[in-house]
Give the backbone structure.
Amino acid sequence: MLPQWVIEKKRDGGELDADEIGAFIKGYTVGDIPDYQMSALAMAIYFQGMSFDEVTTLTHAMLHSGDLVDTSSLTRPKADKHSTGGIGDKLSLLLAPLAACNGIDVPMISGRGLGITGGTLDKLESIPGYRCDLSEAEFLAVLHECGCSITGQTASLAPADKKLYALRDVTATVPSIPLIAASIMSKKLAEGTDVLVLDVKCGHGAFMKNLDDARELARTMVEIGHRMGKSMSALITDMNAPIGRTVGNALEIRETLAGLSGQGADDMMSLTYALTAEMMVLSDGKADPSEAKKRLVDDVTSGAALARFRQMVELHGGVSDIEAQLPVARIQTPVTASASGTVSAVDADKVGRAGIILGAGRTRVDDGVDHAVGIADLAAIGERCQAGDVLATIHANSKDACNEALQYVKDAYIISSKKIPPRPLIIETIKPGE
Ligand code: URA
């Protein structure tokens, strides 16, 4: 079957079979099918969607486009968490060392920023020397030594996703449930874990803007993983406001260090504890979630989690005096409140766009990022303020970008005269079969 016939079938709402999907992904991976035909198919999938069988087949085809990581030498339970992408989402950086402190190996293959969402690898690379390009042998060596390693996708791991992810970013085909599900699950299944907890973000700053779409994405991924023998669950979490107090790479590393030292923002820490506890419960069927959370708090209080994070950084080639060596932006400008009252909304989409304007994220997949810039000191929903109080601080390396970003952050804030009820951070938990 010619590639254009497969595109035509999907464009017209047909259901693709395993041969059609398999041949298309294989052809694209080896370069026989050009980017323009893959873009056309991605756009057809974006508009027509895919059945569960089609998404499962697409995931398999992408998973088997490369090698699987052989984690059989790791003797502890192997678990990972993956987020669908958020603003200020540095939870992986806190969670990986915490899970490692609790008898779990965390072989975490992460991505770079996509759209307005930040990427764990970009954050880690703001630490001078940190390598995100470990070979499989180096990745396993770090895991044997400290129980967690956060690295990038090698050329041989789900290469179809590596190519397609970059193509989707520049062809407006990112927010598609089947494409996101196959992209995430092909990488995560290649990692060789027993347990996978998904953090499906929902709201202004997420690819999934409403709960129905977030549920469908969560159910699709949980079911794909479950049918492949993995212990799965997904937490649907609120992404209307940024997580924690910072957005931007080095700023988020500073906030991670603060969080691991016991000075983390409440939303950031409670999401971290919930996701890590879920990994612990799925890894050890007998673990009790509230007991697990207590142990996590103890690991922060004792300094064990921070020490584990520093150990991972050093094993990846990063400097030991992280705080002293993180890059700092030349300009720091406050964003002030225009009225007195209570912060009732902080639009994560607008703050994410401010980050892109400053250069913290990329607009093209081969762009570099400015690790120093971003937004810090973000006042959270529910905080009281007086007119003129600082709501956030812009960290910039260009005056023009600073002014433009400042307006976005100012517009992100709504100050209300009413009392604001606390918002639930975890909206729903999805298990297999639900
Ligand atoms: N994260 C991924 O790995 N893939 C997507 O498509 C979106 C978020």
About this structure: Residues 84-85, 111, 114, 165, 174, 179-180, 183-184 surround uracil (CB under 6 Å). The chain has a mean pLDDT of 95.
